[in-house]
Every structure is written in structure tokens, then in C-alpha cells.
Amino acid sequence: MAARATATFLPVLSLLLLRAGADDNSAFVYAGCSQGRYDAGTQYESGVDSVLTSLANSAPYAPYANITSPSALPPVAGLYQCRSDLPASVCTGCVRSAISRLSSLCSWSAGGAVQLRSCFVRYGNDSFVGKPNTAVLFKKCGGSPGDAGGAAMRDSALGGLASSVAPAGGGYRAGGAGGVQAMSQCVGDLDAKACSDCVSAAAAQLKAGCGYASAGEVYLGKCYARFWSNGGGFVSGASSGNGYGFGPRMNGERLALAVGGFFASLAYFSVLLV
Predict the structure, then answer these.
(1) Residues 247 and 191 reside in one and the same domain
(2) pTM of structure
(3) Judgement on whether residues 165 and 111 belong to the same structural domain of the protein
(4) Neighbour-count burial of 16, counting CB atoms closer than 10 A to its CB (0-12 exposed, 13-18 middle, 19+ buried)
(5) DSSP assignments along the chain, one per residue
(6) 222 closest CA partner among 97, 98, 118, 137
(7) Confidence of residue 169 (pLDDT cuts 50, 70, 90)
(8) I need a surface site. Which of 54, 97, 154, 224 has the fewest CB within 10 A?
(9) Are 266 and 110 in contact (CB under 8 A)?
(10) Is 225 inside any structural domain?
(11) Do 71 and 112 belong to one domain?
(12) Does residue 74 have a cis peptide bond before it, meaning omega lies within 30 degrees of 0?
């Protein structure tokens, strides 16, 4: 027996402000669940369980993986993407935390996705793997007020992300200009051009929407980008790899914005978790 619904869902939007929390690789950012649901005891339930289990088991070995369970009707696909500069232990913990969140937030949903601070997990039956998506899902600007000089450094740092070549197999980019740092991450199912296009779109959103804010982040369908000043905004925590650490802490929240539905097939929400 198949799931009750596949990829044709009515998008529903509900938004609560995201709590600015501690510097935590598994801190919640947003989630989305399909309107369609499936029945217990079906092939689709087995497919979802199989895909999510396989994703959890793959996390110690690679920052990205996608899995398909063809035995389910319709087939279930899933993927995860960690920030690819982080150690395998951090990726593993983040992915498993994301899957646990999906199990509670999207119970019995035919499709779902969750973005945590350092990883993204999605499953469903709507052929999303390999498809570019630059829809804005979540945007936030804040930090101590800056000035035109800071905005110029921000634009330069973000422009550098968009024009740089991502490391093979990673999609992670980091850089800076003056007193502003920036980073971005693409989902691993994008090719190099699609990743660059997504990062360019994310950078444009931050340049246009964050004014003189000293920190900001935007999550698109297949990538995200962040910037922060050295004197405020996103607080750097314990770092690894290239030395960058990131957290969701802001010195003053100015904007929390969701635009449109989640991908066009999932209901989008950003919830306050305590």
C-alpha cells in the first residue's frame, strides 16, 4: 500500500521566531513536513525507516550521502549534508539529531526536512534529489548596527564566496574581507555550477536584505550562506578544519523572515524549541 499522498501538497506556512541559542552544531533552524501522510505497516513506512537508518549509518564516513529505497511505493529518497569542513564525529551527531527531530516533528509525513546548525536532512517521494532550488526558506539579520564601510566589507566577503571554486565533493566555502567573515554550504547533489548559482542567489539575498546589520544568514532550497563581523553577530565556537566555528547567537535579533512555502511540497515552520 502506498503513502496517502505523494508530491502534490498544499504549502502551509506558520512562523515563530527562532530562539537565539548557544553555539551548538545541532541547534534547530527550521523544518518542513508534507501535507501527505502514510499509514503504519505499509511498504512506504518501511522505505522511510530504511532510508533514514541508512543515512544515519553513512554519516560517520562522508559529509554527504543520498539513499533511495526502491521497494517502497512510491520510492522513498533521502539525503543529508553536513558542513563539510567539520569532523566526522560532529557530522554524525548532527545527522542523528536531525533524524530524531524529523521523527517527532514529521511523524507519519510522506516527506520532511530539517536544518540544524551544521547539517540538513530530507526525505520524500517528490524527486528532489539532484534538482537545483534557490527558494528562500529562512532569512535572519542582526548583530550590532554597522555602517556603510561594514556593508561594503560584507558585500566583498559574500562576493568572494560566490566567485570562489568550492573544494571537490564538499561545496563548503569560507572567506572574508576586512573585519567581516562569510561562509556557505551547498547540498552535495548539486554540480559545481548549480552550487555557485545557489551561493550567488544567497549572497544577493543577504546584500539586499540585511542593510547595515553586522550578521546575517539565509537558507535557500539547496544552499545557505552566513556572514558576521569580527566584533559581533555570530559567535565563533570551538573550531576545526579550516578554523572557522559558527553559532546562531545574535547580539540583537532584527529580522526573522520566511518567504514562501518549504520547497513547494512541504509545509514550512520554524519553531521555538526549549
Answers:
(1) yes
(2) 0.79
(3) no
(4) exposed
(5) ---S--S-----EEE-PPP---S-TT-EEEEEEES-B--TTSHHHHHHHHHHHHHHHHTTT-SEEEEEETTSSSPEEEEEEE-TTS-HHHHHHHHHHHHHHHHHHSTTBSSEEEEESSEEEEEESS--TT-----EEEEEEEEEE--HHHHHHHHHHHHHHHHSPPPTTT-EEEEEETTEEEEEEE-TTS-HHHHHHHHHHHHHHHHHH-TTEEEEEEEESSEEEEEEETTSSSPP-S-BTTTB------SSEEEEE--SSBTTTEEEEE----
(6) 137
(7) low
(8) 54
(9) no
(10) yes
(11) yes
(12) yes
Query: Rounded CA gap, 220 and 204, in Å?
Result: 12
C-alpha cell at 196: 555557485
100: containing domain: 13-131+260-270
Give the CATH number of the domain where residue 214 resides.
3.30.430.20
pLDDT tens digits for 190-202?
A: 998 899 999 999 9
Half-sphere exposure of 201 (CA within 13 A, CB side): 20
Strand partners, 227: 182, 216
Length of the chain in terms of residues written: 274
User: Distances from the Cα of 87 to the Cαs of 36, 61, 127, 165, 227, in angstroms?
Assistant: 36, 10, 30, 21, 22
For residues 244 and 146, membership in a common domain is answered with: yes
With 70 as the cut, is the pLDDT of residue 64 above it? yes
238 within some domain: yes
Same domain, residue pair 103 and 155: no
φ/ψ of residue 189, rounded to 5 = -85, 0
- Beta-carbon contacts of 62 under 8 Å, excluding residues fewer than 6 positions away, are none
Residue type, 159: G
Each residue's pLDDT tens digit, 143-167:
777 788 888 999 999 988 877 765 5
